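On clarity, I found the account of how folds are encoded harder to follow than it need be. An entry of this sort, consisting of the sequence and the corresponding backbone structure tokens, reads as follows:
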Amino acid sequence: MKLSGTLDHVDSEINSFESYTVGNFSYGGNLIWTLPLGVQLSTDLTASCNRGYRERAMNKNEYIGTHGSPSR
């Protein structure tokens, strides 16, 4: 299992600048299966999430999956 993230606050003394706070975090895990004859299969799934951005398209969830080659 894995979990990581950041929370950033941006501020300025410029009058026209509006302060904001954004968060970026990810979580996921990986699995390894050992089959007969010692063959192993592995997979990894991670979710990456962004929050607090003014541009709505940047506030999103992305899912990233990978798989490895069978190995002994």
The chain has a mean pLDDT of 90. The chain has no helices and four strands. Strands lie at 2-10, 20-34, 40-51, 61-67. The CA atoms of residues 1 and 29 lie 4 Å apart.
